Structure formats: C-alpha cells, structure tokens
From TrEMBL:
The chain crosses the membrane at residues 21-45, 80-106, 118-141, 153-171, 192-213, 251-270. The lineage of its organism: Bacteria, Bacillati, Actinomycetota, Actinomycetes, Kitasatosporales. Pfam families: BPD_transp_1. Its main location: membrane. This is Carbohydrate ABC transporter permease. CDD domains: TM_PBP2 (cd06261). SUPFAM superfamilies: MetI-like. The keyword rRNA-binding does not apply.
C-alpha cells in the first residue's frame, strides 16, 4: 500500500504522465470493447469450412462478401429488421410521451400523496422483468394480444426509469419560465408543450435513444409474445436463424453484424443530443 503512494504523488506532480496514463487506459478499454465486434465481422466474411474448422482462424483466408446475400436468403432478415424498427420505435415513442407527462406531473403539480405515490412507483424498478413476465403474458393473452403489435408494444410503453430521469430534469427548470407563460395567458397544457418540452429536448432525446436501443436488443418479451415472421424481431430471428441452419457461424455472425449497423448509424446521427442529454439530465449526476 505504501509503495502506491509515491506513484500517485508522482502522477499528481506530472500532468503529462497522468495524461498518458489516461490515454493508455482509454485505449485499453476501447480495444477490449471492440475486439468481439472485430472478431464478429471477420468471421462473418469467412467461408463455411473456415468458420466450422476445429481450430478456427479469425482472419479469413479468403473474403466472402456473398455471405451478406446468403444471410438475407436463408431467413427473412429484412422483415425482421423492419419489425424491430417498428417495435423499438413505437415503444420508444410511447414511453417518451407517457414519461414526459408523468414526470411533469410529479415535478410541478401539487396533489395529496405525490411523494408517496412517486416512491411506490420507483419501487417497481426493483422488480425483475422475469417476475412479471407470466402475469403480463396472461393479461395480454386474455386481451387477444398474442402475436400482435399492440400486445408487443403497449406492455413496455410505461416504465418508472423514464419518469424518474425526466422528473429530475424538470425539477431543474426554473419556475420563472412557467410563471411568465401563465402571465401571458397560457394554461397548464400550453405551458408544458410550448415551454417545458422545448427546454427538455436533450433529455427527452436521450431517453428515446436509450429506450430504442434497449428494445432493439430485447429478446425475452418478443420471444414469448411473437409466433410468426409478421411480428418476429431481429433478436428472435437470430435464434431461429441458428436453429434453422445448424449454426453456420459465418452466416449467423453476418446476420448479427447486419442487425448492429442500424444502432451504429443511430448513434452517429444522435450523438450531439445524446451527449448533451447525459450532461444535462440525471444520468450525468446532476
């Protein structure tokens, strides 16, 4: 323990050494994070024999870009991707709207039992998803929602996490803006739409992106509720892909790589709002 103290003191006295250590740490973390992705892409372009070899080599002996077309031919991967966009987008849109309304009510409206109700609402975060899976499925089945879009989307359109994050942001918005709008004749609804929502665009966009990504990778609920290709998502489709084709690793990983591309594009398109929302909302420790 005592030997670490001089080293830490040296780092504090030398900003250059501290910066180099930080850069090395970031490089190491990035390399560890990207290694599985790079391996996935390399194996995806291998031949069938290379990917099934007893001693696999991750670098392709010859590149096979035709694996992209083979992945789309063996299963309706395009349909799965469209289903996933509809499922993740619909869920993210509905949760963003409901979370914004509930968060505004908890942050600005005064009513009896508000704090108690919010505390009870937050306790639902401690309940594992697997615990509510069977009751949720029974409820959706009784409402004839199995293998339908309402049955897939609506159960995930209300979560306490989104309400908590937006409430923390709304609490930081000065009340002077609302009071000025009320003096100009705006009612509560107009104040929310024209004043609060424009100020909260970064936080709302961050929540929408988080929700879209989580639902894009959601496997459990679509696996339980969808029974056909008309509603099957990409995460479930990869499981069907694996069982249908006897685990052809090159094609399976090619399909996985294809399903990852939309998330990468989404991040680059929304990274400005993404970073700004994290720094301004409760995710940034405000």
């Amino acid at each position: 323990m005592t030997s670490d103290v001089p080293a830490l003191a040296a780092l504090r006295r030398s900003p250059v050494a501290a910066r180099r250590l930080l850069v090395f740490t970031c490089f190491l973390v990035t390399a560890v994070t990207l290694t599985p992705i790079v391996m996935m892409v390399l194996v995806a372009f291998q031949s069938d024999a290379e990917s099934m070899a007893a001693r696999p080599s991750f670098w392709p002996g010859s590149w096979h870009p035709e694996n992209i077309g083979r992945a789309f031919d063996l299963v309706p991967l395009g349909r799965y991707l469209l289903n996933t966009v509809f499922f993740a987008g619909g869920t993210a849109l509905l949760e963003t709207v409901t979370a914004a309304l509930a968060a505004y009510a908890f942050a600005r409206l005064r009513f009896r039992g508000r704090s108690v109700l919010f505390g009870v609402y937050l306790t639902t975060l401690m309940i594992p998803t697997q615990v509510t899976l069977i009751p949720q499925f029974i409820l959706v089945a009784k409402l004839h929602g199995v293998d339908t879009w309402p049955g897939m989307i609506l159960p995930h359109a209300f979560t306490a996490l989104g309400v908590f994050l937006l409430r923390q942001f709304f609490l930081g918005v000065p009340r002077d803006y609302e009071e000025a709008a009320r003096l100009d004749g705006a009612n509560r609804w107009q104040t929310f739409i024209r004043v609060i929502v424009p100020l909260a665009v970064p936080a709302i966009a961050t929540l929408a992106v988080f929700k879209f990504i989580s639902q894009w990778n959601n496997l459990l609920w679509p696996l339980v509720i969808s029974n056909s290709d008309s509603t099957r998502t990409a995460a479930v489709g990869l499981q069907v892909f694996q069982s249908t084709n006897g685990t052809q690793w090159n094609l399976l990983l090619m399909a996985a790589a294809i399903t990852t591309v939309p998330l990468i594009v989404l991040f680059f398109l929304t990274q400005r709002w993404f970073v700004k929302g994290i720094t301004m909302s409760g995710l940034g420790g405000r």
